[in-house]
Amino acid sequence: SCTMSFSEAEVQSARGAWEKIYVDAEDNGTAVLVRMFTEHPDTKSYFTHFKGMDSAEEMKQSDQVRGHGKKVFSAINDMVQHLDNSEAFLGIVTPLGKKHATQLKIDPKNFRIICDIILQLMEEKFGGDCKASFEKVTNEICTHLNNIYKEEGW
């Protein structure tokens, strides 16, 4: 389905929660990726230039890891701005999903991993309410991405 069911209050609290972590997009985006690569080393295989990096410290310093962390956070930020507009939201999620499915061939389970780590980080830094406000957004993102993957024959 293409319609998203966020109440005005849910949109506002999700945006409030996201703003807290997005203020430091590069550092927090990097932290999310480093945690993913450390806890799920198989995810590194998609990033040829991260493959040889084993220490979290080394990853944290890497311009490529930092750049991609920032990119991930920017994409989510664009989605968060359009939670009240399904068409605009899908306009961002769809090409992103297609690219990851067809060109990059990224296993879709990795989106859930990234989203869960973002929620963990929110909870650690800003508490459970912050995490709770954003959970529905991550579910929405992952659901749409999975649908796009299905359409692409995964």
TrEMBL record:
First-level EC class: oxidoreductase
UniProt cross-references to InterPro entries, sorted A to Z: Globin, Globin-like_sf, Globin/Proto, Globin_lamprey/hagfish
This protein's record includes keyword Heme: yes
A GO MF term: heme binding
Tree of life domain: Eukaryota
Known role: Involved in oxygen transport from the lung to the various peripheral tissues.
EC number: 1.15.1.1
Catalysis: reaction(s): Fe(III)-heme b-[protein] + nitric oxide + H2O = Fe(II)-heme b-[protein] + nitrite + 2 H(+); H2O2 + AH2 = A + 2 H2O; 2 superoxide + 2 H(+) = H2O2 + O2; Fe(II)-heme b-[protein] + nitric oxide + O2 = Fe(III)-heme b-[protein] + nitrate
Organism whose genome encodes this protein: Toxostoma redivivum (California thrasher)
Keywords: Heme, Iron, Metal-binding, Oxygen transport, Transport
Designated name of the protein: superoxide dismutase
Similarity annotation: Belongs to the globin family.
PROSITE patterns xref list: GLOBIN (PS01033)
Residue ranges annotated for the Globin domain, each copy included: 5-150
